[in-house]
């Protein structure tokens, strides 16, 4: 049972509660140490909980996407409508936090493994992910592909491991080429229990920007702690032998489970009993247990695991089918997280020097969690000179014409306020060339606004990086795409005569032989194509037109098709009147 299905079980059971209490923020800036997941089934509650405490977070992963199978191939399903996603993104942005939405694997047994094993299908899936990130303006993506571990079976891992490794490395290269980040969420490796070696920490360590370890679900099928502290420490310690600490986030449970442990006696006829286990969020655990008659005084903290636990029984009295009195006693046992246990695991992450702690989930926590986490993450007062995180927002034109300069802007802020000092560097990754290169540089003024005027040589992804300055960390904007249109020139006679040829001549730059060009005429306010040819060496072309209407007005333009990394180009218009 994966953590996704575990929380869904809690939802089905009606266990949805949240503790989005507005805390009194410390006077000093807290460390941005947290990450976590925002479930799509509680978007409003989870988003409110996050935005209220966003100053604690470095990044966030809305649980918005799912890889699915259409009968022949993998495609990406969106859990939210476009309208709902746009509204949610608007709430998440502007908080100084990277947005890395998650994609889960819902393709079914063996299908994702088979897709990754076929280079063409793997490449197509990678392109779908990159397109998703660029289309929505995400800072990157979080992969949460758990089917290998929990459904396919360990007998498949030997074959899946190299395909998974190739997939992560290729996806990383494709995302990094666009200035985007890759986070990968994985089960534990190198610990017992929980050695899911198929995920090959060492083989993907150089490719990922973040590796999130799901250090929970220690006990699923039988009663026990969700994430006992000694085991969590072991999982984290094993991870940093394979992956740099600066990339590792420790996954922390903000939930629990309640197990059926047995029954004595004969239950009354018609009496329904829950003889299974179910999940509880930290925020509704006490209320859920209270429905079974459990008082807070019965709940204790398990000394070894550090989690709250309780064993209890429920007695049902009534009649048998023959009308005789009868009773039965059902026994249950629960373990669950609370503010203290969550904060303790954050301290484990900090003590090992990990990059951060990721909460599964945000929005279902108890109200007292956030004050506890503020203490656990610490504040910048611990190091007054510590540099602070900057955000860089880039503006770029969608199209420019070859040879013409475009205006590329950047706004540098820290905590929502302009930040000057240091240098800003405009970087471009030209289509078909691969690799980022510096193309322009300027000092960042006090108002944090930088504008570059630069002529891109070809269609490119663009971004702006800023150096560290004063109390500001180095930072980088998201990447945007600017397409360079081919430059198309055109000239013709000013005077034309009915029935006689008029030549339209010109060239397409950059000059290429064989580029398709179209002669278009303006008819009733719409451009219609009346002729097609191809350029000769050097990009030159020629059309001939014959005016047929005396005193008729003719307006033309020439359009080049997209080629070699250049977008479709448009000439200026030429007009003449036929005599």
Short account of what is shown:
With 579 residues, this protein is α/β, with parallel strands linked by helices.
Tags for this model:
579 residues; alpha/beta; TIM Barrel; Immunoglobulin-like; S-adenosyl-L-methionine-dependent methyltransferases; eleven-stranded mixed sheet; 12 helices; 35 strands; disordered N terminus
Write the layout of secondary structure elements.
Blueprint lengths: L2 H10 L21 E6 L3 H10 L6 E5 L1 E5 L4 E5 L3 H11 L5 E2 L2 E4 L5 H7 L1 H18 L3 E5 L2 H6 L4 H20 L4 E6 L14 H4 L5 E4 L15 H11 L8 E6 L1 E11 L12 E4 L3 H7 L8 E2 L6 E12 L5 E12 L2 H13 L4 E5 L8 H9 L12 E6 L3 E3 L4 E9 L2 E2 L4 E8 L6 E7 L5 E6 L5 E7 L8 E2 L3 E6 L1 E2 L6 E2 L5 E8 L6 E8 L2 E9 L5 E6 L7 E8 L8 E2 L3 E5 L1
Parallel strand pairs: 1-2, 1-16, 2-5, 3-6, 6-7, 7-8, 8-9, 9-10, 10-16, 18-26, 28-35
Antiparallel strand pairs: 3-4, 11-12, 11-15, 13-14, 14-15, 17-19, 19-20, 19-23, 21-22, 21-24, 24-25, 24-26, 27-29, 29-32, 30-31, 30-33, 33-34, 33-35
Helix pairs in contact: 4-7, 5-7, 9-11, 11-12
């Amino acid at each position: 049972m994966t953590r996704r299905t575990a929380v869904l079980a809690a939802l089905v059971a009606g266990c949805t509660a949240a503790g989005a209490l507005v805390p009194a923020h410390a006077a000093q800036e807290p460390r941005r140490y947290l990450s976590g997941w925002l479930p799509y089934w509680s978007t409003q509650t989870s988003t409110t909980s996050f935005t209220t405490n966003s100053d604690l977070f470095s990044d966030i992963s809305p649980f918005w996407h799912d890889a699915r199978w259409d009968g022949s191939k993998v495609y990406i399903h969106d859990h939210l409508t476009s309208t709902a996603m746009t509204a949610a993104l608007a709430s998440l942005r502007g908080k100084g936090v990277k947005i890395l939405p998650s994609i889960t694997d819902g393709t079914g047994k063996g299908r994702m493994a088979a897709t990754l094993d076929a280079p063409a299908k793997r490449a197509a899936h990678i392109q779908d992910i990159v397109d998703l990130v660029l289309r929505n303006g995400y800072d990157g993506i979080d992969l949460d592909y758990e089917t290998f571990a929990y459904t396919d079976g360990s007998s498949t891992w030997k074959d899946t491991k190299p395909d998974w490794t190739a997939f992560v490395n290729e996806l990383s290269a494709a995302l990094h080429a666009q200035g985007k980040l890759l986070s990968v969420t994985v089960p534990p490796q190198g610990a017992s229990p929980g050695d899911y070696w198929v995920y090959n920490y060492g083989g993907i360590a150089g490719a990922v920007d973040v590796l999130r370890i799901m250090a929970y679900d220690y006990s699923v099928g039988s009663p026990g702690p969700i994430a006992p502290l000694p085991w969590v420490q072991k999982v984290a310690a094993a991870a940093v032998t394979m992956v740099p600490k600066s990339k590792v986030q420790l996954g922390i449970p903000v939930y629990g489970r309640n197990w059926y442990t047995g029954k004595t006696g004969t239950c009354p006829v018609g009496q329904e009993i829950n003889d299974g286990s179910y999940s509880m969020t930290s925020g509704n655990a006490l209320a859920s247990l209270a429905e079974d008659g459990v008082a807070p005084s019965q709940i204790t903290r398990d000394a070894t695991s550090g989690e709250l636990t309780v064993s209890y029984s429920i007695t049902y009295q009534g009649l048998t089918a023959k009308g005789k009195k009868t009773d039965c006693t059902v026994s249950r046992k629960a373990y669950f997280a609370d503010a203290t246990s969550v904060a303790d695991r954050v301290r484990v992450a900090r003590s090992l020097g990990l990059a951060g702690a990721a909460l599964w989930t945000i929005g279902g926590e108890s109200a007292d969690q956030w004050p506890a986490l503020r203490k656990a993450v610490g504040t910048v007062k611990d190091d007054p000179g510590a540099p602070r995180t900057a955000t860089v927002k880039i503006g770029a034109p969608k199209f420019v014409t070859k040879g013409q300069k475009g205006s590329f802007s950047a706004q540098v802020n820290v905590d929502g306020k302009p930040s000057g000092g240091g240098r800003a560097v405009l970087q471009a990754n030209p289509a078909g060339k691969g690799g980022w290169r510096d193309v322009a540089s300027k000092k960042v003024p006090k108002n944090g606004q930088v504008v570059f005027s630069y002529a891109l040589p070809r269609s490119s992804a663009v971004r702006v990086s800023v150096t560290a300055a004063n109390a500001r960390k180095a930072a980088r904007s998201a990447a945007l795409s600017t397409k360079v249109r081919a430059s198309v020139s055109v000239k013709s006679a000013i005077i034309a005569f009915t029935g006689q040829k008029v030549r339209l001549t010109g060239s397409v730059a950059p000059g290429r032989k064989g580029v398709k060009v179209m002669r278009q005429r303006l008819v009733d306010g719409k451009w219609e194509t009346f002729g097609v040819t191809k350029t000769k060496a050097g990009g030159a072309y020629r059309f001939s037109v014959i005016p047929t209407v005396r005193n008729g007005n003719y307006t033309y333009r020439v359009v080049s098709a997209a080629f070699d990394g250049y977008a479709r180009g448009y000439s200026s218009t030429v007009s003449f009147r036929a005599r």
